[in-house]
Amino acid sequence: MNERILPSPMLQTFYVSRETSNCPLISEMIKLGKNLTEIKLSNKETGVVSLDYGKRLLINAKNIDVKNMTQHDVVEIVDYDPLKNIMMVIGTKDPCLETPVHWIIQKARHDINALLQINSTILFERFKGTFPSTEKEVKPNTLDSAKEILKTLRTGKIILIKNQGILFAGINLKEIQDALQNYLGGQI
User: Fold this and answer.
1) pTM for this structure?
2) Closest CA to 75 of 51, 97, 58
């Protein structure tokens, strides 16, 4: 049996600058994060917001509550090499663990420029059977996870990540906001 050799799981992060990103799109990310308070997520349920920005990626930092995110809580990913597992970053904080998966998805699909991932087994159970779900349960934040998510995204822009949560994909953050309103409204 051929075994795939994957890069070391240890992500190497190099900071191009330790300054806060001044991208004007950050305000839209903050607005979407604040709108998550309307769907009454518990403190255990975490979210990740990312936005493609030219050849770069804006994403919330590690251990950040996206409902209370500020401009300082967003990092700009200048480049990421999945084979060497090296990332170049602008920001004052470390990027969240889901960054490599979000980078791979947004660079592989030109019709996806924004992602909202809500890590919630409650939402996964609630929408099981409503939205397509990844077939295999894979370790989060891995190359296999990105492949499984990309495969499932062929069937729709809202998918479930098996036993982890839900992923909203869109051409922009407005499309995600509209989907949130349609499916989650003001309650869970």
Assistant:
1) 0.90
2) 58
Structure tokens at 11: 């992500």
Q: Which long-range contacts (CB under 8 A, 24 or more apart) does 133-141 make?
A: 133/159, 133/160, 133/161, 133/162, 134/159, 134/160, 134/161, 134/162, 135/162, 136/162, 137/162, 137/163, 138/162, 140/97, 140/98, 140/101, 140/164, 141/97, 141/98, 141/100, 141/101
Long-range contacts of 69-76, Cβ-Cβ distance < 8 Å, separation of 24 or more: 69/29, 69/30, 69/33, 69/34, 70/30, 71/20, 71/21, 71/26, 71/27, 71/30, 72/20, 74/20, 74/21, 74/23, 74/26, 74/29, 74/30, 75/21, 76/21, 76/23
As assigned by CATH, the class of the 12-184 domain is alpha beta
Pairing of strands 12-17, 86-90: parallel
Every domain of the chain and the residues it spans: 12-184
Condensed to tens digits (0 to 9), the pLDDT of residues 8-63 reads 458 899 999 999 999 999 999 999 998 888 777 777 788 999 999 999 999 999 99
Contact yes or no for 45/186 (Cβ under 8 A): no
